[in-house]
Automatic annotation (TrEMBL):
Transmembrane segments: none annotated. PROSITE patterns: HTH_CROC1. It comes from Caulobacter henricii. GO terms for molecular function: DNA binding. Residues 12-66 form the HTH cro/C1-type domain. This is XRE family transcriptional regulator. CDD domains: HTH_XRE. InterPro entries: Cro/C1-type_HTH, Lambda_DNA-bd_dom_sf, MLTR_LBD.
Amino acid sequence: MTTTVLTIGERLRDWRRKRRLSQLDLACEAEISTRHLSFLETGRAAPSRDMVLRLAEGLGVPLRERNALLLAAGFAPVFPERSLDDPGLDAARIAVEAVLAAHMPFPALVIDRRWTILASNASANLLMAGVDPRLLEPPVNVLRLSLHPDGVAPRIANLAELRGHTLSRLRRELADNGDAGLADLIRELAAYPGGETYPRGGEGMIAVPLRLQTPLGELSFLTTTMTFSGALDVTVSELTIETFLPANPATAAALRSVAAG
């Protein structure tokens, strides 16, 4: 097998097409001429490091891929990638821990770009109760845990609706970043049983809920995501905090009663 190595020009062109931008659109955003951009994409001109970073910013390229663009252009990466327990990321870790604690008694998870759970608060254990222990062996993928037939899936009252929403979201992410690992995950999840329907709005509906059968009765959650704005570290830029908010008063009361006693 042979591996095709894309040039910096080919990589820039691919990202521009992913973003559905014309050369004129990107040239205006980066404040360069379309002629110069055309030369960069065809290899007739070589970009400087600053030019690579300027174009990457205009294209909204993730930090991990900005490093890859720099390498393709012959420059060293400029965005570090460290473990979350690295002392240099103390501020980020403390912020994450503060959000997890503040969200109690409602569940919250911290995940990376591949949906691996990095941290969670105590209330998140309620979501994972009763799953096959093998699915809880690190690294734990929250989507596999949720949709696997031996995971949370049998307790999700609106499984087909949630699957449809989740897989649509992942396919949009894949179209944006072309991550091969994400493509593999989508194929795996799509092969699980449970169907795939697409939610329709209705009276009182503001978002697709997670309706979960528990010993406390059916609990209903809405989810929100939180990320670090302006991150300059690859790891931090790929962190997402998923918070679960009660979708009705009964769910809120049930969780508060568990926390109180």
